[in-house]
Amino acid sequence: MNSIRSFALLLVAAVIATPALAQDRRVPSSGAELRLSYAPIVQRVQPAVVNVYAAKTVQNRNPLLDDPMFRRFFGVPGQQPEQMQRSLGSGVMVDASGLVVTNNHVIEGADQVKVSLADKREFEAEIVLKDSRTDLAVLRLKDTKEKFATLDFANSDELLVGDVVLAIGNPFGVGQTVTHGIISALARTQVGITDYQFFIQTDAAINPGNSGGALVDMTGKLAGINTAIFSRSGGSQGIGFAIPANMVRVVVASAKGGGKAVKRPWLGARLQAVTPEIAETLGLKLPNGALVANVAPNSPAARAGLKLSDLIVAIEGQAIDDPNAFDYRFATRPLGGNAQIDVQRAGKTVKLTVPLETAPDTNRDEITLSARSPFQGAKVANISPAVADELHLDSQTEGVVVIDLEDGGTAASVGFQKGDIILAVNNQKIAKTSDLDKASKTASRLWRITVVRGGQQINVTLGG
């Protein structure tokens, strides 16, 4: 009897509960609600998203050609067969005159770049500016005087997790494609793609070929440039990363100003992350902020009064969680003014004013070494404050540093890396690039080289 009564009560409860659940759902009240769509946004922004095709010529070099005995079988070096390597990506028109922004890795090393518009017209393009630190590049369409459709920049600092976004690009070369999703996270700093680790994460499907394409908000503005995916299979796993529009804006402004390199503010201080152990030592509740580990004399940081062991906690009122966040916030500040930073010093908050100016770049003296030696194909420079800032070296470091390596060059094949500091060659001190150039032209059967890599001094011996 009790079981029957219990069943009856449950049945009544279920009947009563059903209308409440139904209130969460409703039939569309008009035909217009059935036609809700992202199509108006897509139609407005699609003409400004382009496909980018890059190609470079590579010689199929046979190593036996180094031996004169085999040359008559394989031909002289100038007659080696050539192969065309091609890459595919996307881009965004950011100026009506034909200025396109894309990823640097899409056009890196290219001999020829073409841009295909949404209406399938193709244009040759020249590379105006490349910035490996952000993985961005700016192109300009050749031989055209018409006005093109463009995208305006959104303020990426106003984006929120959960905002709906569209990703537009050319995945796998199938043609222009639109996917949608939300912003999954902001300020991702552990991605390891570029120097400025501050990415927008989205679950909008991004695949190979989307690189350089647009991440668009619901106002039809450019929220970011799609640049990478996290994937175990090579396809979309719902974790894509985009460079925020505010950083893209800085690179485009430098290109419009006619610069060959991006001009950014220079702090002149080395920062380190706050670990839980450091936070405990400093009496902090949370391991947040950027700890000052070194301040260069006469730098903007020094003139602002920044000191060793200061903890930077905010810039222009925006909280700083780690050094990557500070680097991004500082790098996107306009040159010529000042930035207000908050630091914790001896338990008190101190406000400092840092002038926004570029790092001195005197006596860089870049050269690419071509003599037959272990350094062949290495591009080296004297370490100016600007070079130190670019390569994250201590600003007081002196000497000659590797800033780039040619594909297939001897330097790359023997293991030199970007950022290596050359201290000595065959017991001769290397103080400037002319010293290394001279040393590389001296015939030697053995090469004894002293290098600093990641703060560690390494002595290597290579055959001539």
TrEMBL record:
Pfam families: PDZ_2, Trypsin_2
Annotated active site: 105, 135, 211
Keyword Transport belongs to the record: no
CDD domains: cpPDZ_Deg_HtrA-like
Designated name of the protein: Do/DeqQ family serine protease
Signal in keyword set: yes
Signal peptide span: 1-22
Domain PDZ stretches: 282-347, 399-430
Residues reported in the UniProt entry to bind substrate: 105, 135, 209-211
Molecular function as annotated in GO: serine-type endopeptidase activity
InterPro entries according to UniProt: Chloro_Bact_Ser_Proteases, PDZ, PDZ_sf, Pept_S1C_Do, Peptidase_S1_PA, Peptidase_S1C
The species this protein was found in: Bradyrhizobium lablabi
Top-level taxon: Bacteria
Record keywords: Hydrolase, Protease, Repeat, Serine protease, Signal
Entry's Gene Ontology BP terms: proteolysis
